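Progress report, Aim 2. The chain analyzed during this reporting quarter is listed below.
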Amino acid sequence: MAVRDKLEELIFLKKPTVIISEWMPWGNNQIAALNRKLGSMERLKSTLMTALVDEFPEQSIFESDPVHSDVVVKDFELTQFVEFRCKVDYPEAAGITQVEEFAAHIHEQGLVVFALDLNEVEGRKGIVSLDHLTRVNADLLMDSSQIMDTLLAHSQLRMMDVMFRGKSRNRGKFVLVVSEGITPRKSKASSYADQEDYQNELEQVVGTLETTETVSDGSYIFIGDLGVIVVTKSFSTHEEVLGLYALVRSLDMFMNQYFSRLWLGWDDSLQIRQMFLHKADRDPTMVAQAKTALSKVGADAVVLEALMKFLTESIVYTREQITRILKKSSTKQKEFARKLHLQMFFDRVETRIDDAEKVVEGLKREVEGLQGLVTTLGEKQMKRVYDTLQDSSRATEEMLASSERGAVALNIIEIILAGTIAFDVIETMNTIGFLDTVFGGFGSTGTFIIFGATMLIWLGVAIGLYKFMEYLTSRHEPLFSMQLRLEAPCHIDRLEKYLATKDITTLITKQDGITDATKASWEEEDKSKWLGEKPKLSIVYDGLNGYILTIVAEFKNPNIDREELRRVLLKEIKPLLKGPNNFS
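Predicted structure tokens for the chain:
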């Protein structure tokens, strides 16, 4: 690997091994699926892993950019762990040559470890400066994340995406560096904590330097909040303790990020609550906005709760392993574990997980409470809409009654008009002497005959006008209509499919952010279903909230059996309604 800028190098490590560990939500089933994915049981020589999808699987050639890794399984237990070597072939910046091969271990309790020996950096073999090690670590952190993206299942990717808000590729990991020696070699580890140049170099690797420890066998331990440097010649002796320590510190780092994510969830819920308090009564779109925001917060809370269950299981396992390992350890191993503050870090993370359980439970209850508020607000707004519809219905009924009164008055006017026409006809006939010529010989009887003829003409004209108006009315308006007010929740997808089968003649939509009222009208063609008629049907529904408000059937035949028609209408609409209803 080539580093182009010049560095002031003060501390060098001899034959360092970099171990990058993190905690992730695994489990028996996921480990079993991973083993099948890697071909562990088939003992495949190697497996090509990539996040790319073959768009032409029927072809025998798969071409891609060099963004893949070559995996060779070394050991596995179907549902407990898998160990493999991974040769990474990811593109680097121009002028940089890098050969990178990890040894990886993934355990069903969540521990993910990537380890590699730094054989040569910047042309130096067997010795690496902390400045160069910092650059290498940054690259290794990104590469290890890219490897895991190809190994994780969709459910795990979803959890990590929620946990890190879509930035899981940049998540923090615990860095453990084990070296055989350190240059310059000081008398004790605390001598490097000088608050100046030496400490600054150490903190490039381990983060904020919290403590330094000198072990009786001459080992040095530098503990930071992001990593640990261990200088020892007895790595194999302490390997098991260091592996357990990596799990504890990885859990601790994950809990730092987990708590931050929990508070973000609480912040989101607080913003939604404030939206209710300040805008609920003024903004008609508030229900739709709140539902969208709450659905995301609620889904995230479910994922965080699932992560908490994985964490709880992992901490129980870790407690058992600490007890087992320390019980069988030698005096030197116990001292080493004590200098690492293994028990202290474990007690801290165990307490934090117990506390986090309460916080995530509270977040879940908060979301449920907000959902109740949204429902209540929606019901209030729906009630206002229904009240408005009822007012409109009453106004319509009053208009209809007024129209009926006008129709009666019009009929009276028609009768009077018919009489006027009749008398005009008689008067005209009398003017030309026709009546005198025809009925003059009848004397007084002729007068009655003329009057009777006038009445007959009047009656004939009245009947003719009435029939003509009835004919015109029948051509434009149905003679009978039935309206059913349902106001019942429905399956919008079923309703849309139902309407798609109809020849819609009228479609009117009114949106105000609270409701999405739509009226669809069409004419039925199947007479056998509709009592021997071809009615015009109309459905008014709220597509936003999923309600059928009313259904109207209009017939030209006024003699339709009302009860039978109601039964037919309910039978037609019942498959579209949700759940049980009181309609029969």
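The longest strand covers residues 68-77. The domain at 480-576 is CATH 3.30.160 (Double Stranded RNA Binding Domain). These observations will guide the mutagenesis work planned for the next reporting period.
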